[in-house]
Design a protein that fits this description.
This protein has about 350 residues and is α/β, with parallel strands linked by helices. It has two domains: about 140 residues, ATPase, nucleotide binding domain (Nucleotidyltransferase, domain 5), CATH 3.30.420; about 170 residues, ATPase, nucleotide binding domain (Nucleotidyltransferase, domain 5). Helix content is about 40%, strand content about 20%. A five-stranded mixed β-sheet has the order 3-2-1-4-5, with helices on both faces. The chain has a five-stranded mixed β-sheet with strand order 8-7-6-9-10, sandwiched between helices. A hairpin with a 4-residue loop joins β6 and β7. α4 packs across α5, α4 runs antiparallel to α7 and α6 runs antiparallel to α7. The chain is globular.
């Protein structure tokens, strides 16, 4: 078939470009933005300016690493949303200009769907590890915590989602409270390996159905620390590893409890995980344990595909290209888009 898709991702603070040929990944280049660390979170204006600086060299490098010419591209896929509007505008505008210059079609991609479809990226032509339809996908990141029923690449249904905060946000906010750098999730994961996960009891929400809630967990974590610090001003420093281990265990148990219920009720044993929090070692271990205990066939993405990346955008664009689902030149990005 020889269909070559360039993917462009600029939804938040990572500028990324990737090339896929017939589903096989040829390159995936990511430029991260360190400027936000000093502010404890992503600053939208700074993010969009950094994208403007990064996007040309990143796309150039992705095409170079793929070993192709830009004239071999069949289409340009780009993230249309959800995300930061200023950041999205940079990627969308560049994709329009490149597609127009090369006279190739454009494909707009839903960022959330792309995370799910990252599981279909092939490392080589012999790779057949992709999920079978239907399957469940737990999408967990700083902005999303969803259980998605995936019937086909273009037929996804959110059966459960957070009613307030996302799991990744809970990690980051609790990490900030105990003085860890931004983003806090990886730091919590690192320190959790040194701590006792059963040392500190934390509240778990009681939400009906398959929905999640993490705002109560953040509040209980904050109040617990407030009370301990009144007794011992050095409590956090003396117990940081146990705090991280207990927090991680609680978040993972909340996530897996609802996913386990959904898999049982829907009679599905093929289960995937996606999004930034899928890099968490505790969550990955829980998936492996559930695979052994409940005979799940699990799909855990490589670390390169957990955070925002253009490989997943190119993969989603590849499916849409084959279906003839193209974007027009007057399309605009959206900051909020649902599956």
């Amino acid at each position: 078939m020889n269909k070559v898709i360039l993917g462009i991702e600029s939804s938040c603070d990572d500028t990324s470009a990737a090339v896929i040929r017939d589903g096989v990944l040829l390159s995936n280049v990511i430029a991260s933005q360190k400027v936000h660390e000093a502010y404890g979170g992503v600053v939208p204006e700074l993010a969009s300016r950094a994208h403007q600086q990064n996007i040309i060299p990143v796309v150039h490098e992705a095409i170079r690493q793929a070993g192709i010419s830009k004239n071999e591209l069949s289409a340009v896929a780009f993230t249309r949303g959800p995300g930061l509007l200023g950041s999205l505008l940079v990627g969308v505008s560049f994709a329009k200009g490149l597609a127009l210059a090369l006279d190739v079609p454009m494909v707009d991609v839903n960022h959330l769907q792309a995370h799910v479809l990252a599981h279909f990226i092939k490392k080589d032509e012999a790779d057949n590890s992709q999920p079978s339809f239907p399957f469940l996908c737990l999408l967990v990141s700083g902005g999303n915590s969803q259980i998605i029923l995936v019937r086909n690449w273009n037929d996804m249904e959110v059966v459960g989602q957070t009613i307030d905060d996302a799991a990744g946000e809970a990690f980051d906010k609790c990490a900030k409270v105990i003085g860890l750098p931004y983003p806090g999730g990886p730091w919590v994961d690192k320190l959790a390996k040194e701590g006792n996960p059963d040392r500190i009891p934390l509240n778990k929400p009681h939400i009906a159905g398959y929905d999640y809630s993490f705002s109560g967990l953040k509040t209980s974590f904050l109040y617990f620390l407030r009370d301990r610090l009144q007794e011992n001003p050095n409590y956090i420093e003396e117990n940081k590893a146990d705090l991280c281990a207990s927090l991680q265990k609680t978040v993972v148990e909340i996530l897996m409890q609802k996913l386990r219920k959904a898999a049982k009720d829907l009679n599905i044993r093929e289960v995937a995980v996606a999004g930034g929090v899928s890099a968490n070692s505790g969550l990955r271990k829980a998936f492996e344990e559930h695979a052994a205990r409940y005979r799940w066939k699990i799909h855990i993405p490589p670390f390169a595909f957990t955070t925002d990346n253009a490989a997943m955008v190119a993969m989603s664009g590849y499916f849409k290209y084959l279906a003839g689902d193209f974007a027009s030149m007057d399309c605009v990005p959206f900051s909020r888009v649902e599956i």
